[in-house]
Amino acid sequence: MQVMKPGDKAPDFSLPDQDGNLFNLYENLGAAGAVVFFYPKDNSQVCTAEVCAFRDNISSFESKNVLVVGISNDNQESHRKFIRNNQLNFKLLSDIGGKVRSLWQVPKSIGIIPGRVTYVLDQMGVIKGIHSDMLRAETHVLEALKLLD
Questions:
Q1: pLDDT reported for residue 133
Q2: What is the pLDDT of residue 1?
Q3: Where in the chain does DSSP place strands (E)?
Q4: Which CATH superfamily is domain 27-148 in?
Q5: pTM score, whole prediction
Q6: Is 52 a catalytic residue?
Protein backbone atom coordinates (compact mmCIF):
# COMPACT_ATOMS: atom_id res chain seq x y z
CA MET A 1 0.00 0.00 0.00
CA GLN A 2 1.33 3.42 -0.94
CA VAL A 3 1.34 5.88 1.95
CA MET A 4 -0.31 9.27 1.47
CA LYS A 5 2.04 12.24 1.55
CA PRO A 6 1.91 16.04 1.32
CA GLY A 7 0.79 17.09 -2.16
CA ASP A 8 -1.61 14.14 -2.53
CA LYS A 9 -5.33 14.79 -2.79
CA ALA A 10 -7.06 13.39 0.30
CA PRO A 11 -9.80 10.85 -0.40
CA ASP A 12 -13.33 12.17 0.05
CA PHE A 13 -15.59 10.38 2.51
CA SER A 14 -18.98 10.49 4.19
CA LEU A 15 -19.40 9.39 7.82
CA PRO A 16 -22.06 9.95 10.48
CA ASP A 17 -21.33 12.57 13.10
CA GLN A 18 -22.21 12.29 16.79
CA ASP A 19 -25.85 13.23 16.03
CA GLY A 20 -26.26 10.77 13.17
CA ASN A 21 -26.00 13.42 10.44
CA LEU A 22 -23.98 12.37 7.42
CA PHE A 23 -20.82 14.48 7.11
CA ASN A 24 -19.11 14.67 3.71
CA LEU A 25 -15.57 16.05 3.77
CA TYR A 26 -15.56 17.83 0.41
CA GLU A 27 -18.96 19.43 1.04
CA ASN A 28 -17.68 20.85 4.33
CA LEU A 29 -14.10 21.92 3.64
CA GLY A 30 -13.45 25.24 5.32
CA ALA A 31 -12.72 28.30 3.20
CA ALA A 32 -9.03 27.69 3.89
CA GLY A 33 -9.16 23.91 4.34
CA ALA A 34 -9.50 21.39 7.13
CA VAL A 35 -7.72 19.53 9.89
CA VAL A 36 -8.81 15.89 9.97
CA PHE A 37 -7.45 13.97 12.92
CA PHE A 38 -7.75 10.24 13.52
CA TYR A 39 -7.49 9.08 17.13
CA PRO A 40 -7.75 5.62 18.73
CA LYS A 41 -10.54 5.76 21.34
CA ASP A 42 -12.99 8.05 23.11
CA ASN A 43 -12.26 8.60 26.80
CA SER A 44 -8.73 7.20 26.80
CA GLN A 45 -6.15 9.41 28.51
CA VAL A 46 -4.10 10.54 25.51
CA CYS A 47 -7.14 10.86 23.24
CA THR A 48 -8.89 13.05 25.80
CA ALA A 49 -5.80 15.26 26.00
CA GLU A 50 -5.75 15.52 22.21
CA VAL A 51 -9.40 16.47 21.73
CA CYS A 52 -9.18 18.96 24.60
CA ALA A 53 -6.12 20.56 22.98
CA PHE A 54 -8.11 20.99 19.76
CA ARG A 55 -11.04 22.34 21.81
CA ASP A 56 -8.83 24.86 23.58
CA ASN A 57 -7.36 26.07 20.27
CA ILE A 58 -10.49 25.98 18.11
CA SER A 59 -10.61 29.79 17.81
CA SER A 60 -7.16 29.73 16.16
CA PHE A 61 -8.47 27.32 13.52
CA GLU A 62 -11.78 29.18 13.07
CA SER A 63 -9.95 32.50 12.63
CA LYS A 64 -8.16 30.88 9.67
CA ASN A 65 -11.48 29.51 8.28
CA VAL A 66 -10.26 25.95 8.83
CA LEU A 67 -12.64 23.16 9.75
CA VAL A 68 -11.57 20.70 12.49
CA VAL A 69 -13.02 17.19 12.62
CA GLY A 70 -12.03 14.12 14.63
CA ILE A 71 -12.51 10.48 13.57
CA SER A 72 -12.40 7.25 15.56
CA ASN A 73 -14.03 3.83 15.40
CA ASP A 74 -16.34 4.72 18.30
CA ASN A 75 -20.10 4.85 17.82
CA GLN A 76 -22.28 7.96 17.85
CA GLU A 77 -23.45 7.50 21.46
CA SER A 78 -19.84 7.25 22.64
CA HIS A 79 -19.02 10.43 20.69
CA ARG A 80 -22.02 12.30 22.18
CA LYS A 81 -20.87 11.44 25.72
CA PHE A 82 -17.25 12.29 24.91
CA ILE A 83 -18.32 15.67 23.51
CA ARG A 84 -20.57 16.40 26.47
CA ASN A 85 -18.01 15.35 29.09
CA ASN A 86 -15.26 17.46 27.52
CA GLN A 87 -17.32 20.39 26.14
CA LEU A 88 -15.97 19.76 22.64
CA ASN A 89 -16.77 22.36 19.99
CA PHE A 90 -16.26 20.37 16.77
CA LYS A 91 -17.67 17.25 15.15
CA LEU A 92 -16.57 13.70 15.90
CA LEU A 93 -17.23 11.15 13.18
CA SER A 94 -17.89 7.42 13.59
CA ASP A 95 -15.75 5.21 11.37
CA ILE A 96 -17.03 1.89 12.66
CA GLY A 97 -15.11 -0.84 10.87
CA GLY A 98 -12.31 1.58 9.95
CA LYS A 99 -13.11 2.01 6.23
CA VAL A 100 -12.06 5.67 6.11
CA ARG A 101 -9.04 4.97 8.33
CA SER A 102 -7.96 2.36 5.74
CA LEU A 103 -8.78 4.65 2.82
CA TRP A 104 -6.56 7.34 4.38
CA GLN A 105 -3.85 4.74 5.12
CA VAL A 106 -3.68 5.53 8.84
CA PRO A 107 -1.20 3.00 10.25
CA LYS A 108 -1.77 0.98 13.39
CA SER A 109 0.54 1.33 16.36
CA ILE A 110 2.29 -1.90 17.40
CA GLY A 111 0.14 -3.58 14.77
CA ILE A 112 -3.12 -3.46 16.74
CA ILE A 113 -3.94 0.02 18.12
CA PRO A 114 -5.61 2.42 15.66
CA GLY A 115 -3.09 5.16 14.85
CA ARG A 116 -3.15 8.81 15.88
CA VAL A 117 -2.56 10.86 12.74
CA THR A 118 -3.48 14.44 11.85
CA TYR A 119 -3.86 15.64 8.26
CA VAL A 120 -3.89 19.32 7.30
CA LEU A 121 -5.69 19.96 4.01
CA ASP A 122 -6.00 23.04 1.85
CA GLN A 123 -9.38 24.24 0.54
CA MET A 124 -9.10 21.86 -2.45
CA GLY A 125 -8.46 18.81 -0.24
CA VAL A 126 -4.74 18.59 -1.02
CA ILE A 127 -2.64 17.42 1.93
CA LYS A 128 -0.40 20.22 3.22
CA GLY A 129 1.07 18.14 6.01
CA ILE A 130 0.74 14.98 8.10
CA HIS A 131 1.62 14.53 11.76
CA SER A 132 1.76 11.21 13.59
CA ASP A 133 2.54 10.84 17.30
CA MET A 134 0.81 8.26 19.49
CA LEU A 135 1.81 9.65 22.89
CA ARG A 136 2.27 13.42 22.67
CA ALA A 137 -1.27 14.54 21.93
CA GLU A 138 -0.58 18.26 22.13
CA THR A 139 1.87 18.08 19.24
CA HIS A 140 -1.01 17.43 16.84
CA VAL A 141 -2.52 20.86 17.44
CA LEU A 142 0.85 22.63 17.43
CA GLU A 143 1.95 21.01 14.16
CA ALA A 144 -1.41 21.70 12.50
CA LEU A 145 -1.26 25.37 13.46
CA LYS A 146 2.35 25.64 12.21
CA LEU A 147 1.30 24.25 8.82
CA LEU A 148 -1.53 26.76 8.58
CA ASP A 149 0.67 29.80 9.28
A1: 85
A2: 45
A3: 14-16, 22-24, 33-38, 66-72, 91-94, 108-109, 113-114, 117-121, 127-132
A4: Glutaredoxin (3.40.30.10)
A5: 0.94
A6: no
